[in-house]
Write a structure and sequence with these properties.
The chain is an alpha+beta fold and about 350 residues long. The protein has four helices and 14 strands. The strands form three sheets. Strands 3, 6, 7, 8, 9, 10, 11, 12, 13 and 14 form a ten-stranded antiparallel β-sheet that branches. Strands 1-2 form a two-stranded antiparallel ribbon. It has a two-stranded antiparallel sheet with strand order 4-5. Helix 2 packs parallel to helix 4.
Length: about 350
Amino acid sequence: MSKTQKTLKKFEKRLASNVTKGFGSFFRTIGLFFVKAFKLLDSKLTIMVVPHSQSKVVNFQTNVFALIMGALLFVGILASFFYYNHRSISANSEISNLKELNKETLASLDELRDENTNLFQAAKRFQTSLSQSLSLLGISQVENNSNSSISNGDLSSLFSSTEIANGTAREIADVKELTSYLEGAVEPIEQIGKMLKTQQNLFTEIPSINPVKNPHVHISMAFGPNIHPINGNWYIHKGIDFSTWHAGDPVMSTASGQVVTAGYDNSFGNYVIVKHNHGIYTRYAHLNSIRVKKGQLVDQGEIIGTIGNTGISTGPHLHYEVHIGSDVVDPAKYININMNK
């Protein structure tokens, strides 16, 4: 064996010996610590209770370990008391808040029930009005055959249901019944809308509006027998004269149609004739200016000229006529105007 190998062998032996001694010293130290701690905890203590009276002195023996455990137990009990006392206070506060919230909820529920009652009253009035309107228009209300529907298209079962159910269930049942009724009322209302749209289209084809839109407009001469303002003789006035006391105010077409004449006449001055559906014609005479031309399509309410004093006239005004076929009719029958002079 070489010299180097011998040196390594000696080093390994010394290292192993030192490690063994180190572990042994460590475990001996630990053992001595636990022995001393056990002896300390097992130390005997005598506690004496000396009363102020002549009673016998009370004493009892214990050790350090029991005393420490008793102290820890006391601290644990005291800490638990404060913890649960704090939790109890928090729980009471939360319960108080929940009670207040419950009161507010009940108040809101009462208000909701009041509004629910008002809603049903309004629904009943609506049902009565709708039924009358549908009857006048010849429209039958569609019956809803669902279980929650209202029989015969009215609200009879809706209002009788309040006698069967109570509380919140009653409100829910009523709202369901009302929803079902309103769903059934949609189709008749749509039919009314279509009918009104048809009527509206019809009204635009009939001279049903005032040709002069001015808050100061008045009728200076009505339709029928009148004294001629120039020669003073009685004659049949074939239209209505509208006046605003000055020229230049716009004149509108009283119905949709097509301009068939836009020109000048010695008697009527500047005038326009519009042809409408159903064989109706309207004439607008004594205009100051003409805003349309022959063949032009005009809508109801569209401006076709302005009030003037052209032709045989004693002052600025619009002479307005309505013809059905070959007959001249009173324009007041078609428009809602004040017939006072």
